[in-house]
Design brief:
The chain is mainly α. Helices cover about 70% and strands about 0% of the residues.
């Protein structure tokens, strides 16, 4: 059974930075537990000062819940396109429950004001039961948020910047191709330049493989990065081979379940031995 859709009827008139949500949401989860402890203690001591402190903390919870929603909406927009279908569905449910918690925190504040007018133990016990239910929802929300981060990679800076890093690798690869052409035209020491090019290509391959591996782990092996480094043009292959016949640049496609493509830059064993004596 799914919850009916609700919305927050207004937006904040300011820009919220990305990745603020994890810091804010901890207050929304932890403070209600402190309030519960205060309410239980006040069953014994029956001090108005404790009740007023509890009211003040509930006001903070309302603010924290609102901040958690708005910061989460910003982070959710950044992460949504990088999630698999299952992760996107869970993110939508997470957002909806967050809206319910915002309204629930406001209702909790109003009920606290109402029950403060009664001194009966029954009223306090009823409020404590409502508070326990509210805490249960916040803990579930925290658990779902953890799954979005650790299982699907949402709100993960390394995953959210994956496309930018792949573009940087593509630019670096293009620079290597231009360097190869310049080396041939200038007629400089081809042996040393080709060795340097081979080292850079090998490092570039390692960086790319690491990025793909991180992407696969962040989506629980359900999806891989579809963006790949372009294969070198045929004329570039000829340039590299002419500069160093022992250096081979190959493009290999290995089919995977997620139909992703990777680039393999094979460095011959004899060149590796010369580079790593």
């Amino acid at each position: 059974m799914s919850l009916p859709n609700l919305t927050i009827p207004f937006e904040l008139p300011l820009d919220i930075p990305v990745l603020i949500h994890p810091a804010v949401v901890h207050f929304a989860v932890a403070i209600p537990i402190v309030i519960l402890l205060l309410e239980i203690i006040n069953l014994v001591f029956k001090r108005r000062a404790i009740s007023v402190l509890s009211l003040f903390l509930i006001i903070i919870v309302v603010v924290a819940m609102g901040a958690s929603y708005f910061t989460g909406a910003v982070d959710g927009k950044e992460a949504y396109s990088l999630l698999v279908a299952e992760g996107q569905a869970e993110l939508k449910e997470h957002k909806l429950l967050g809206i319910y918690l915002v309204y629930a925190s406001v209702a909790l504040l109003l009920l606290k004001l109402l029950f403060m007018a009664f001194s009966r133990v029954v009223a306090r016990l009823f409020f404590i039961l409502l508070l326990v239910g509210f805490i249960a929802l916040t803990l579930k929300q925290g658990k779902d948020g953890g799954e979005l981060v650790y299982k699907y990679g949402a709100n993960n800076e390394a995953v959210s910047s994956m496309e930018d890093k792949l573009e940087e690798l593509q630019d670096e690869y293009d620079e290597l191709k231009e360097d190869s052409k310049a080396t041939k035209d200038s007629g400089e020491d081809k042996k040393s330049d080709s060795n340097e090019t081979a080292i850079k290509l090998k490092e570039l391959q390692e960086k790319y493989d690491a990025l793909v591996k991180n992407s696969e782990e962040s989506t629980d092996n359900e999806s891989t990065v579809e963006t790949s480094i372009d294969a070198p043009a045929p004329e570039v292959e000829e340039i590299v081979k002419e500069e160093a016949p022992s250096v081979e640049v190959e493009t290999k496609e290995e089919p995977t379940e997620a139909s992703s493509s990777t680039v393999s830059l094979d460095i011959p064993a004899d060149l590796n031995e010369s580079l790593n004596p």
